[in-house]
Structure formats: structure tokens, C-alpha cells
């Protein structure tokens, strides 16, 4: 999996790393048990400070997307593949995005259509 990090983007780099790994899992590019690069290796590959990658991995670990073992490194967790789990954090983030779209003038129908297109992007095989 190749991460696409935009250094000029307003989204913090650690968040972009986290997001790209989550997208990789959602699209099936990363599967249960797949190893991720070490913090140092990924930092060197994309040209960032290792603390930036460490922060992204820490978030992913706390979310249950990855497990970290000192001997075997970071791997995709089985929990990350459980698509039936909608926790309060997921709901809060979804409500925030819906609220932002609403404040920008999006109608319920427009939002539904747009989200449907995004879902198709993630689930295309």
C-alpha cells in the first residue's frame, strides 16, 4: 500500500497517515494480519518525523485498527474488519460531517446522494 500524503494540505500529516490506512482497510488493500512498515521505515519513506508516524499509529491502535507488538511490529487488527460496529465516536463524527454539510446549504437529498457515491467508491471491487 502506498500512502498519498499531501504536505500542503491543512489536514495534519499524522491524520492523513491514519486516514490512508483506514481507507486501505476499507478498500481491502490491507487485510487482517498484514504488517505495516515500522515507524522509522514509514517516516523515512514519506519524509516525515518518526514522531508523526508514531502519533498516527497510536491513534490507530486506540481505535482498534492495528495491534502493536514490540517483536512483530504493527499489524492490521481483526477488530478493524468488523464492519458492523458503530460506536459513539463513529456516530459523533458522522453527525459532525452531516452538520457541516447542512451549514453549507446541502439538502438532505443532496447529502444522501453524495454519501451514496462515496460509499460506492469505498465498496467498489
Automatic annotation (TrEMBL):
GO molecular function: DNA binding; DNA-binding transcription factor activity
Alphabetized UniProt keyword annotations: DNA-binding, Transcription, Transcription regulation
Matches recorded under SMART domains: HTH_GNTR (SM00345)
Any Pfam family: GntR
Keyword Ribonucleoprotein among record annotations: no
Domain HTH gntR-type: 11-79
Membrane-crossing residue ranges in chain numbering: none
Protein name: DNA-binding transcriptional regulator YhcF, GntR family
Amino acid at each position: 500500500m502506498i500512502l498519498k500524503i499531501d504536505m500542503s494540505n491543512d489536514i495534519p500529516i499524522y491524520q492523513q497517515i491514519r486516514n490512508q490506512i483506514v481507507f486501505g482497510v476499507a478498500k481491502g488493500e490491507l487485510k487482517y494480519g498484514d504488517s505495516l512498515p515500522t515507524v522509522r521505515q514509514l517516516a523515512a519513506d514519506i519524509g516525515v518525523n518518526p514522531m508523526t508516524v508514531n502519533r498516527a499509529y497510536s491513534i490507530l491502535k486506540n481505535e482498534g485498527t492495528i495491534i502493536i507488538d514490540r517483536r512483530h511490529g504493527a499489524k492490521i487488527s481483526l477488530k478493524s474488519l468488523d464492519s458492523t460496529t458503530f460506536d459513539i465516536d463513529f456516530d459523533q463524527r458522522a453527525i459532525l460531517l452531516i452538520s457541516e454539510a447542512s451549514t453549507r446549504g446541502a439538502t438532505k437529498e443532496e447529502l444522501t446522494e453524495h454519501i451514496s457515491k462515496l460509499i460506492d467508491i469505498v465498496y467498489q471491487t
